Amino acid sequence: MNLFELAPELQLFWWTAMGLFVGSFLNVAIHRLPRPGMTVSKPRRSLCPSCARSLTWKENVPLFSWLLQGGNCRGCGWRIPWRYPLVELLTALLWFAVAWITPSGEWDLILVRVLVVSGLIVATFVDFEHFEIPDEISIGGMVAAPILSFLVPALHRETALALVFSSGDSVDRTGAFLASLAGLAAGGGVLLLIGWIGKLLFRRDAMGLGDVKLLAAAGGFVGPGAAMVALVIGSLVASVAGVLNVARFYWISRSRVRKRAASKAPARSLASARVAGRYLPFGPYLAIGVGIVLLAWNHVVGWIPR
Ligand SMILES: [Zn+2]
Q1: Is there a contact between 59 and 74 (Cβ–Cβ < 8 Å)?
Q2: How far is the CA of 57 from the centre of ligand 1 (A)?
Q3: Is the dihedral of CA 99, 105, 111, 112 positive or negative?
Q4: What average pLDDT is seen over the chain?
Q5: Contact call for residues 158 and 186 (beta carbons, < 8 A)
Q6: Among 184, 266, 300, 303, which one is most buried in terms of CB atoms within 10 A?
Q7: Is the pLDDT confidence value at 186 over 90?
Q8: Annotated domain spans of the chain
């Protein structure tokens, strides 16, 4: 029985269900990759991060176990963070979106796209918690991008440069491979340049190397033009989030300071909010930008002013 002989609706269901299970594996990666001595395959079994008890298969069913257990570990009663069901649901939704927008016969293209989306999810949640992006994702992506572009040239079907590098009038392996390398250089290069200018202007590190590697990898998958657009979208979303974050800290510290001394509250709250608001990871916003150009490039192209 071949999956691709199934009705399109069943194929969509299959990719979504796979996404749900992969999402639960991504949770393991998000927990373990930033922790020294742990890998995604060591320890072999899934453990409760709180009581280290091995989980039974019943406790390992994505989403449903969390719902059935009321969000608690069966052994120690540990409150399972929202991140776990959220990542599973998000992965399933994004795998559904990829399968929805990609013609169902092009399973190789679907596979590469869900792989990229999954890497972005891991990078996002690790960066939020630890302010770093695992090299397994960023450097792994930088290595995988040109190889997968060569194997699945359709990945760069909408990359203008890939067509220039191709010999015929459609994107071939050489064209996709070279466009991927150009995307790597452009994505990593632009952030290195911004970081260098930022250092000259503000005399402190403005750009993390993790972000540089992440956009380099992303550029390898979406091409140089889309990588630049992803950076612009990511920066816009990040500035909105930054303002909201400062406002949130202002609110929190204002209500705290108010309890003590009512007079100087606003000025002091704003100062501490500025400090707190500065520590905002950029990776998640970059990932949102990359996700948008990956899934909707032909729509995004329409918004770009010419
Ligand atoms: Zn436990």
Answers
A1: yes
A2: 15
A3: negative
A4: 89
A5: no
A6: 184
A7: yes
A8: 1-105, 135-306
